[in-house]
Amino acid sequence: MKQQSETFGLAFENIPIINLRNEFARYYAVLNDKNFLSQFEGPIKPIETPYMVWHGMPDDLITMIMQRVILGVEAYLPSAVFYELGMRGKLNKNNLPYLRNPFEFGGRSTVDNYYDKLPSLIDKSLSLKSFDNELWSQTKAFYKEVRNPIFHGKNISNRDIEGLKKVFIYLSQIYKWIDNWHDYSQILSNKKK
């Protein structure tokens, strides 16, 4: 789905969702790499990541990585729903506005719109709220305590790699939930044909 900003002249295309998964996996892997983690110790110096050399403050890098992986999930989920609706013969002009902007459902809750209403377009049982109530509760807490502050002007103010690891563990559970009803490897095999 291509989009265009008339005001700013920018054009947008969908990110291949496998790229989102790969970025998440690469950052998750380096969080267990002693060489990577050692860069956060001692005096502040440039930090090498899988994608760049960071010359800013370590806390800013942790915040940016957190923002990237959260945005990755929030982009991945509508794409997975889009693909599954198409594969199941349920994709139609009535559900396209929700896929383009889950806030078309109404309400202000990202958790409700993304994790409940969006997958319910496929089947209500796939909603995180129905599928895994404990993970649903954890998601509500995550958005309130972590996602919303860093998306509304807050910066992580310590070099808490352990906290970052907890976020990755949580987000990997979100990806596992999605994997229960969406097999992204099918997209890869379809593109190879």
Any overview of this molecule?
This protein is mostly helical. It has one domain (3-192). It contains 9 helices and 4 strands. The chain has helices at 17-30, 34-38, 58-87, 96-100, 110-120, 128-131, 133-151, 161-181, 184-192, and strands at 3-4, 11-12, 47-48, 53-54. The strands form 2 sheets. Strands 1-2 form a two-stranded antiparallel sheet. It has a two-stranded antiparallel ribbon with strand order 3-4. Helix 3 runs parallel beside helix 5, helix 3 packs parallel to helix 8 (161-181) and helix 7 (133-151) packs across helix 8. The two termini are 22 Å apart.
Question: In a few lines, what is going on in this structure?
Answer:
This protein is 61% helix and 4% strand. It has 9 helices and 4 strands.
Defining traits:
single chain; 193 residues; mainly alpha; two-stranded antiparallel ribbon; two-stranded antiparallel sheet; 4 strands; globular
Would you spell out the secondary-structure blueprint of this structure?
Layout: E1 3-4, E2 11-12, H1 17-30, H2 34-38, E3 47-48, E4 53-54, H3 58-87, H4 96-100, H5 110-120, H6 128-131, H7 133-151, H8 161-181, H9 184-192
Antiparallel strand pairs: 1-2, 3-4
